[in-house]
Amino acid sequence: MLNNFLAFSTLVSIWFSLLASLVTLYGAIRFWIKHSKKIVSITPLKRYPTITIVVPAHNEELVIAKTTKGILDLNYPASKIEVLLYADNCQDKTAAEMRKAVDMPEYRYRNVQIIERQGSGGKAGVLNDALEIAQGEYICVYDADALPEQNALYFLIKKVLENPSRYMATFGRNKTRNAKQNFLTRCINQEVIVSQRIQHVGVWNLFKIGRIPGTNFIINTEYVRSIGGWQQGALTEDTEISFRIMEDGYLIALAYNSEAFEQEPEHLRDYYYQRLRWAKGNYQVVINNFKHLFDRSNWRVKLETFYLTCVFFWFNLAVVLSDIIFFVDLGCVVARFFNPKIPIIFAMDSNLLLMQLLLINWLLMILLYVTQINLALATQYGQATSDQIWLALGSYFTYSQLFIAISIQAVCSVIGDKIFKRDGSKWVKTKRFAD
Amino acid sequence: MIDVFFMLAILVTLIFLIALFAMIHSVWTIYHQTEHTVLHLGKHHHVK
């Protein structure tokens, strides 16, 4: 009886998560049916606000020169841009590479400061330092490996100017710069496209909810000053500030045309630690904001907290349980070859018709997973190829299963940090590659 | 309990089936619209 209940409730939980994701998918499809035929043109903006572009870089000698040039080549009036390049506690030639790029003749008269920083606080610390000296009306952040497309800033500003009193920040998207490197980067590329073209777009289109990513976004300088800057010590400082913006009744708007090219981990170890940090950060965000489900917070904050709670606690637990059930039953089936009297533990009353139906249901879930990836790929020219279909199918059984291990370790780590009062905000830097 | 669960399984399977067909149709539409738009602008126009 208990076995049946466990199996049923696990399956119902997974169904619920899929049905919830179909809602987001619906929002994304509506958006893309309309916008994929829209011809966008670069027309002059009604005004060009001053922008401070901040680039926090910690030992980024391999990629920083290209990023610096990309930023200085942005299609935006040079007189309206102030660039603050931070070489944060660097032991390599990051600052020298920055100087080499900035000293090029074409950038001679640009307003650029290179700051060699020795302070603490990681990325949030850099952003807070920049906040003190920023002259721009908006602060724009690019990670050291994020090479912006020429019109990236233009689209961010264009979006914010649609409703500057309501849109306190706007964010674009990140494309994978090294997508074709290996199987891992190909899978990451698919995941990035799905999260940005389906998840971000769907949630924005349906609920006007946005979440600031780590890079390629702008935020109102005065607003950040008014809330006391970025929270230091948080693993995902961007999520914290996103919650704060929504809590204050403002919006984080999606500028879907704004694109930056970001480098993704090429080795499993780098990928694992990057995602572990993200997962831990998200668990911390859920724990810190759980109270909003029961207080008088903004409904967007409640919805976002509910969503994150479901994904990171309920659905993850359901997926882990379903995997345990699968492997226990598989073990029983194998053991029955040697001793036919061994029962199958989670047999669901041995109802053959139900088993067949659930098999069809499972196959449909896999097809939905593959189709969702291909839907996201179809929104980006050149991505929807037949190879990607097979890759999506392969990633279901390999790449996507990795997240189970990551989430289990993240939960254990967050609980351990609480019990043993450890500093859980230690930042493991993602390794970069020359390209 | 099994009966209720069985009915629920049929309902969810039907929803998934409908969602799948709707999605395949959408992939087709969006793919062709995107291709048409980008080719209209030129592949290197960077404003899609």
From TrEMBL, chain A:
Name the record gives this protein: Glycosyltransferase
The entry's keywords: Glycosyltransferase, Membrane, Transferase, Transmembrane, Transmembrane helix
Top-level class of the enzyme under EC nomenclature: transferase
UniProt membrane topology term: Multi-pass membrane protein
Parts of the chain that traverse the membrane: 6-29, 306-338, 358-377, 389-411
Localization annotation: Membrane
Molecular functions per Gene Ontology: glycosyltransferase activity
InterPro entries hit by this protein: Glycosyltr_2/OpgH_subfam, Nucleotide-diphossugar_trans
Its EC number(s): 2.4.-.-
Pfam families according to UniProt: Glyco_tranf_2_3
Family annotation (PANTHER family): CELLULOSE SYNTHASE CATALYTIC SUBUNIT A [UDP-FORMING]
Highest rank taxon of the organism: Bacteria
Entry's Gene Ontology cellular component terms: membrane
Main location class: membrane
UniProtKB/TrEMBL annotation, chain B:
This protein's UniProt keywords: Membrane, Transmembrane, Transmembrane helix
Transmembrane domains' residue ranges: 6-31
Keyword Membrane: yes
Protein name listed in UniProt: Small hydrophobic protein
Organism of origin: Lactobacillus johnsonii
